[in-house]
Specification:
With about 350 residues, the protein is of the alpha/beta class. It has 13 helices and five strands. It has helices spanning about 1-10, 25, 30-35, 40-55, 65-80, 85-90, 95-110, 125-135, 195-200, 205-215, 245-270, 285-305, 335-345; strands at about 140-150, 170-180, 185-190, 220, 235. It has a five-stranded mixed β-sheet with strand order 3-2-1-4-5. Strand 2 and strand 3 form a beta hairpin. The radius of gyration is 24 Å and the shape is elongated.
């Protein structure tokens, strides 16, 4: 009898403790929201409305998380890169709940990425983009600047070796194209750290689009020496031998610097992508979603002119490793070389 009573007592569940979850949107001003979550109230509310249909729970049973709580938890993780348990403690929720919030919000933002990240395809937008780039260093016909960056991730359980980048850590090699306002117009976040920039480029949708339309008009992207020269991708002169070539390289570098600044600003705002935050503690597929989600939020910040958070100062410390690599087997395209030579002659004094 005593044994049966003891077993019954063990089966009695502990009462659940429902912690008080304050709503930051109710008492924080925009400056504090930007510092903590990287977005002002207006943008957070719009984000909640966009994701509400998928994030809203069908029942309030067990004190289910509200849409705003899920969004704010994910934003806080993106902004700080803190361990999930720390983020959960601040919001009064468990570590598994934080993980589910980050996963759900990242997945939904990735699904909606095309509404915020899109490469220009119409002539009017092309002309606007080219005019904006021309204002930087008088480099003509530029539709965007392309580059890659390594985002540290946890060592994957399968195919671990292919994720080791040239710097010796596990990562995803993320390719992005940006415009003159530092907005991303294309992002590819699915390739392992060992993948070369030129390989990712040749397998991207932007490459296929520009290749199909190369004969219609002379418009191009700018890339470093890790990319192959072509009629729609201008690269620097490896060893300039004249003043005109030096001028070309200078203007090319000044214009292409926008993509490096974009990466720097992305990582400064969303420290979960920065090497100082350690690495993304997820499988590669989820890491790709988080990276894409942060790129979407980055574009939202640019479009709404969201100021750089005070706690980060003005340091655009792009931690990368963006030292140029010469593309393997990079045989210069004859048509691309001809176009580049005409550009060089244009800059001749």
């Amino acid at each position: 009898m005593a044994l049966q009573l003891a077993v019954q007592q063990q089966r009695v569940q502990k009462p659940r403790v429902f912690r008080d979850r304050t709503e930051p949107l109710d008492f924080m001003d925009d400056d504090e929201l930007v510092n903590r979550y990287r977005l002002p109230r207006e943008c957070i509310v719009e984000l909640c409305e966009l994701l509400a249909a998928e994030l809203k729970r069908p029942t309030a049973r067990s004190s289910s998380l509200t849409v705003s709580t899920q969004v704010l938890v994910a934003l806080r993780f993106y902004a700080t890169g803190s361990m999930q348990r720390v983020t959960g403690d601040l919001r009064g929720i468990s570590q598994p709940s934080v993980s589910r919030c980050v996963h759900s919000v990242s997945k939904l933002l990735t699904c909606n990425a095309s509404a915020y990240i899109n490469f220009p395809t119409d002539d009017a937008t092309h002309r606007k983009v080219m005019a904006d780039f021309y204002q930087i260093a008088a480099f003509p016909n530029v539709l965007g600047c392309v580059d890659g960056t390594q985002i540290p991730i946890l060592s994957p359980k399968s195919n671990e070796t292919i994720y080791v980048c040239r710097k010796g850590f596990h990562s995803l090699n993320v390719q992005a194209v940006c415009n003159a306002q530092l907005c991303f117009s294309n992002i590819v976040a699915k390739y392992s750290g060992s993948a070369h920039d030129s390989f990712i480029w040749r397998n991207s949708a932007v490459y296929r689009y520009l290749e199909q339309h190369a004969t219609e008009h002379q418009r191009w992207l700018l890339g470093d020496s890790g990319y192959p020269l072509s009629p729609f991708l201008m690269t620097p002169i490896p060893t300039p031998t004249s003043q005109a070539e030096t001028t070309y390289n200078k203007k090319h570098s000044q214009t292409r610097n926008t993509v490096e600044r974009s990466f720097g600003l992305l990582k400064m705002r969303f420290r979960c992508l920065h090497s100082t935050g350690g690495c993304l503690q997820y499988p590669p597929e989820r890491c790709a979603q988080i990276i894409t989600a942060c790129a979407v939020l980055h574009n939202i910040c640019i479009v709404h002119a969201v100021p750089i958070p005070d706690d980060d100062g003005q340091r655009q410390d792009n931690d990368d490793d963006e030292d140029d690599q010469v593309a393997p087997g990079n045989i210069e395209n004859n048509t691309g070389a001809t176009i580049r030579r005409k550009l060089i002659d244009r800059f001749r004094q």
